Amino acid sequence: NIVLYIIGEYWNIENLICCNAKKGIMLDQASHSVIRNAVVYHIGEEGIHLRDGSSECQVLNCRVYDTGLSTPQYGEAIYIGSAKSTTGYSYECHNNLVSGCILGPNVAAEHVDVKEYTTGNIIENCVMYGGGMTATDSFVDIKGNHVVVRGNICDAQGNTNITDAFQVRS
User: Fold this and answer.
1) 158 φψ region: left (φ > 0), alpha (ψ -120 to 50), beta (else)
2) Nearest Cα residue to 154 out of 102, 96, 78
């Protein structure tokens, strides 16, 4: 149910198209990996997930849309870390970079969700389209520490479910 599931460090994933699955690209214990120019769409839950201690990773110039088709509340375009209610994974997904991505439309949940216990992640120079967001009220949800968000463009596309571009939660 996952198009590409990586365990282990130092991967370069480039120019890949992922579609028609429950999850798109999942990295576990995959620090120092790069996902570049991937297109992820028509996904039942999240598009790209950096999980289980995946730190120092880069998600560059990716296109993610049409996520959350089967489970909208898990339909993030890019998900960093794991919720504190999740067990069995290292929560420490630190110093990751999301840059130059085009996210949406039809991303049911957040375009980027940065979970608690993470630190030092950067979200920059992305374009986020809000048409089709149904399971959230913000483009970016930040629960992690020392997150940098800069140079992003958010277009609600008339979606009245969106109340904030960015939300910071404790």
Assistant:
1) left
2) 102
Closest CA to 116 of 90, 83, 158: 83
Q: Single out the residue of 85, 1, 82, 7 nearest to residue 45, CA to CA.
A: 1
pLDDT in tens, 105-126: 999 999 999 999 999 999 999 9
CB of 164 closer than 8 Å to CB of 156: no
Q: Go through 46-55 and write b for each residue having 16 or more CB atoms within 10 A of its CB, e for each that does not.
A: bbbbbbbbbb
- pLDDT per residue as tens digits for the range 57-76: 999 999 999 999 999 999 99
With a threshold of 0.85, does the pTM exceed it? yes
Cα distances (angstroms) measured from residue 163 to each of 14, 100, 129? 34, 24, 14
In one-letter notation, the amino acid at residue 81 is G
